[in-house]
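Lecture 7 notes: from sequence to structure.
We start with the chain below.
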Amino acid sequence: MEEPSTSELKLSDDVMAEIKDMCITEYCKSKIGLIAQINKLFPTEQSLTQLDSVIVAVEGEISELDNELAYLVETNENVNELEEETLKHAQEAVVELEKSIESIKERTKSSNEIVREMTRDIKQLDIARRNLTASITTLHHLHILLTGVESLGAWVDKKDYSDIARQLPAIRNVLQFFDAYKESEQIANISKQLDKLKASLTIQLARDLKNAFQTGHQLSNRKETSRRTSSNGSSNND
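Predicted structure tokens for the same chain:
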């Protein structure tokens, strides 16, 4: 940012002394240009956080400069044209400084709005990420449930009771994950299918146990009959 060029003015020693006496504060130094002073005050974007306090201080100095300029004009009725031009330049510099500060303040507001928008977008992305993770987890559990119910049906048909005993508790645990989705038609159908398989398994298991018991009893009777027959045969031979 370049400083506005002004024609070089030669002032009397008295005027220069008065101006030098006025420009002794942190924000008004006669040897430092306007733009250089602004860059020094705000070297980084982070330093803009101090803008409000700097504005208050500068406005206070501007008020003091205005008062001193008015005093100089009032107490020096014989100020020549060159000195009046110098005072005019000083006032213009003050106005330019105010404009520059307002411009910086506006850019700061714009930067704050951008930060707020970015923060809002990041929060929305985080919510979307959590929703996506939950959806993937639900789909994974649904796949496990469907595969488990299908396998359970095949095991019931094959009377593979060892696999049924090992996997049925896991299938029931996964089904509990979908308690919140009981109103869903797909989950309701899977739950009904699982209930039918459990009912069928109960009937089939009871029948198989009954058959096994009867078969075992018949084998026991056959062994007892065979033993008695053998014993009777031995007695007759004697």
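Points to note: Residues 77 and 206 are 123 Å apart (CA to CA). The chain has two domains: 13-119, 134-232.
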